[in-house]
Structures are given as structure tokens and as C-alpha cells.
Amino acid sequence: MTSADQSTPTQPPAKRARRADAERNRAAIIEAAGVVFAERGGTVDVREIARRSGVGMGTLYRHFPTKDDLLATVLEREFTCWLTTAHQAAEATEDPWEALTGFFEQTLTHQARNRAMVESYAATGAPSRACAQYRDAFIDELRTRCLNAGLLRAGVTTADLVLLSTSLSQIVQATDDSHPGQWRRLLRISLDGLRARNTEPLPESGPEPESVRHVGASAND
């Protein structure tokens, strides 16, 4: 028996082709779903996603048995991509206040184009617990930079900034059709209230969200 006869059999070409087709279909579904969910929100009919992705309903359901499965996959991808971009921009910005304000600008600009993301923000704070923890740790980093530089109002917590981001995202969607860009005015007003020159004590805050408590616990480890 030759060495060629003893070699491990290769995967049949037909099987490799089927796997490649499946991967292409999955990628097409996710890409189309990202566009459709951004345009119409999470209540859209998945038949529209199948149509835009060029696959049949059977193929869509083989990859994503429920619409919630597909929505979670798309939102986690979008959320992670957005936060990664925001984090890179903040790290490249030397001025702590500009880094904080740039985060809010970038966040709301992104959410103005993504209805499903805003819905997720309002309903659960983030697509998943891991996403929420990633976001809150980043916001805590921005807050700490501003606080250490003497630029942030005393008493402002990470939870305050998370909730401010959430509430402003609702304004983005509520005013986008009737008053596009109105959120920029309200963002400027809100950020002005965060400046250190405002010395009046803030009202007592409520309990922090679980994801924010996790950030605090990690920082103390």
C-alpha cells in the first residue's frame, strides 16, 4: 500500500459546496435582516427579510427557528460594532469631555438610523447582558476620565449616563419624522447640565441597573 493510499480521505466536494452555500445563505439573511430591522423595527414580517435576502422561508427557519433568534443575532452584531467604533473614537480623543460628548453624538446618530436598536434599548437596555456590561463599562470609563479632569458635575453616576443615553434614544425616534435632528438640541441641553460648573447638589438617585452594579463590582476586584 502506498503512502497515498494511507492518507486521510478528503471531504467530498459536494458536502463542502453545501456548507459554503449554507454559510452564504446565513450571511445574506443576517445582512438583509439588519437593514429591515433598522428600517421597520422588530415587528417586521420575516417574509420581507427572506425576500430581500433571496432565500426561501424554509432556509430562513433552518438558520433561525424564530424571529427572536434572528433579531438577537442582528442586534448583538450591530451593538458590538457600534460600541467598538465608539470606543476606538474615544481612545483617539485626548480631551475627556470631547470623548464623552462624542460618544453621545455617535450613539444617537447611529440610533437615528436603527429603529430596532432603539426598541431594544427601551425594552431591555441592550440586546444581551454581555452587551449591556460592555456598554456600561465603557460609559464608566468616559465618566471617570471626565471626573478626574474636573470636568464632570459632582454626583453624576454611570447609571445616570446610561439612562440619559436611553432616554435620548427615545427622543430620536419620536421626533425623527416630524423634527429631524431635534435630538441634537436636546443633547446639547442635557450635556450642559453635566458640566462641573453646575454645583447645585443633585437629587438622590435610585437603585442602579444590574449591569452598572456589575461594572462597579469589577472595578473593586
Automatic annotation (TrEMBL):
The keyword rRNA processing does not apply. Keywords: DNA-binding, Transcription, Transcription regulation. PROSITE patterns: HTH_TETR_2 (PS50977). Residues 200-209 have a biased composition (Low complexity). Residues 23-82 form the HTH tetR-type domain. Coiled coil: none annotated. InterPro entries: Homeodomain-like_sf, HTH-type_TetR-like_transc_reg, HTH_TetR, Tet_transcr_reg_TetR-rel_C_sf, TetR_SbtR-like_C. Residues 1-22, 197-221 are annotated as: Disordered. Residues 45-64 bind DNA. It comes from the Bacteria. It holds the Pfam family TetR_C_43. GO terms for molecular function: DNA-binding transcription factor activity; transcription cis-regulatory region binding. This is TetR family transcriptional regulator.
